[in-house]
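Problem statement: downstream parser choked on a complex file, so we are re-checking the raw output for the magnesium ion run. The parser issue turned out to be on our end (a line-ending mismatch), but while we're here, posting the original submission so the record is complete.
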Amino acid sequence: MTKTLLLLPGDGIGPEVIDEVRRVAGALWPQLVLEEAPFGGAAIDAEGAPISDATVARAKAVDAVLMGAVGGPRWAGVARAIRPEAGLLRLRQDMAVFANLRPALCFESLADASPLKREIVAGLDIMIVRELTGGVYFGQPRGIVDIGDGEKRAVDTQVYTSAEIRRIARVAFELARKRGGRVHSAEKSNVMETGVLWREVVSAVHAAEYPDVTLEHILADNCAMQLVKAPRQFDVIVTDNLFGDLLSDEAAMLTGSIGLLPSAALGEAGKPGLYEPVHGSAPDIAGQGLANPLAAILSFEMALRLSLDRADLADRLAAALKAALDGGARTRDLGGTLGTRAMGDAVLAKL
Ligand code: IPM
Ligand code: MG
């Protein structure tokens, strides 16, 4: 059966890393149909909005969507409602991809590339499950209002329903069953009402449906500390949208470089997933052919596995990528000298 992957290269280093995905996909699975649409700042320039209705409709109709990156100084002045990041938030919400899987895996050959000591990160294999379509990212009311005397007041709203917490908890427990059997649930129940409800609902789901999985509750600030102190204590971490944003950037550095981290955003079973490298648009190195394409290639690998029913090809790609790293292929973020294209070549050579 034909499968279709929609590519959204976006801004900054996005187009460069997505080019390498296109080459890898062509070699691995020539029959895979690749489509492309403008996204982020590039879509603001081309279509006047960071994502068009047509692109959103296409994203909901294909088998999977893979983006590069969005944003950059060039669009710093655009109206907030149409800033590049707003396109990504709309896409996540409209695709209803509430579960963001952000694996942090330390490749053995890269254990020395992490700023943390080898003995702390070697063998690391964490899965952060970030709630992606709720919380303070989308809560109402929000805004900045004048309150007189030249003063202003800004409001964001952190809000979660029990249903939203229940479904993300289930994703985390299901994953843990196939991995190390342990879930840490991170919130701030010592301060926040959403944290209290989060803890209560995760505990209830655990007791009723997943007593075989080990559950530990952890305060999000302590989780941040434990991640650099003793990261291998973690298997699956489930947390809200904002804490997940922060903790996943932190976890990225354990692996050596944020240029290595893929992610998968999933909704209800059978719906298309949205695959995103965790890194941003990196305007400082954009257009120079220096970016590490591995996070994008690994995001494609997750798409093969989780949306495109080709775990066999995902295994081959993962093995090729590992062989390239074992063979010494390193981009600059990993302390090497290879450019984007050469790193793509190194993976293709092993394929
Ligand atoms: C991420 C990014 C996004 C987020 C930005 C670009 C809107 O930081 O995917 O982690 O905050 O979710
Ligand atoms: Mg982030």
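For whoever reads this later: The chain has twelve helices and twelve strands.
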